[in-house]
Amino acid sequence: MVATTIHLMRHGEVHNPDAVLYGRLPGYRLSERGLAMAHMVADHLAGSGAGARRDVVAVIASPLQRAQETAAPIAAAFDLEVRTDERIIEAGNHFEGKTFGVGDGSLRHPEHWPYLRNPFRPSWGEAYKEQVDRMLAAVESARELARGHEAVLVSHQLPVWVTRLALENRHLWHDPRKRQCSVASLTSLRYDGDTLVGVGYSEPAAVLLPGASTVAGA
Q1: φ/ψ (deg, to 5) at 121
Q2: What CA–CA distance (Å, rounded) separates 51 from 43?
Q3: Strand runs labelled E in the chain
């Protein structure tokens, strides 16, 4: 059987001084720490230091700036071009561009309350199942492209997390505070032929995590 690994990576920390839920808005770049995270993951995958060089033959990113910037040093480390796949973009969200909270955030305004009526879908944005479906379609395309090797897909927290939940046969609805998907983390899907045989999780840039910006759904 042919072993293939698809790494679902969350982008690095974003420059977001106003702490808004930026969603799919253009222009949100990586912070200096986010850039350092991207380079640290690139070094990790390329085997800098004591680690073994991974067999990465494709680097694919969401079209959003923060994902493209995260993917760039990884692609460079393997002498590859960054491919773009719209299917691994951030989830759509009604609260995009707004601060999200009860105090001075959008939740203080009654016109937003109907969007919170159904946390199981969720009613404030793109359905979890729709995110899973498009992410898994992108994973299948990446598996065909990198069959027998490895590929890195740079995406976003929520799409990566609900995809993992689906693959582990868990409920898609969840507490956002309990997502295991930090900035610059890798959720690694290991296949033997066409069969998923394992899901791993790692944080190659963990040393840079304390104090990192982690707005839910970023």
Answers
A1: -85, -60
A2: 9
A3: 3-10, 56-61, 82-84, 150-155, 186-192, 195-202
Which backbone phi and psi does 122 adopt, to 5 degrees? -95, 155
| Band (19; pLDDT cuts 50, 70, 90) | confident
d(C-alpha 177, C-alpha 175), whole Å? 5
- Over residues 139-162, the mean pLDDT reads 98
| pLDDT tops 60 at residue 111 | no
Q: Are strands 56-61 and 82-84 parallel, antiparallel or unpaired?
A: parallel
- Say how many residues make up the chain: 218
DSSP code of residue 81 = P
- Phi/psi for 97 (5° steps) reads 85, 0
Which domains are present in the chain?
Answer: 3-208 (3.40.50.1240)
Distance CA 106, CA 129 (A): 26
Torsion of CA 124, 211, 153, 80, to 10 degrees: 140
Whether pLDDT at 39 is above 70: yes
Cβ atoms 148, 4 nearer than 8 A: yes
Tell me the β-bridge partners of 189.
Answer: 6, 199
Sorting pLDDT into bands at 50, 70 and 90, what band is 92? confident
Give every CB contact of residue 47 below 8 A, 6+ residues apart in sequence: 53, 54
| Residue bearing the bigger pLDDT, 110 or 36 | 36
71 phi/psi in degrees, rounded to 5: -70, -30
Strands (E), 104-213: 150-155, 186-192, 195-202
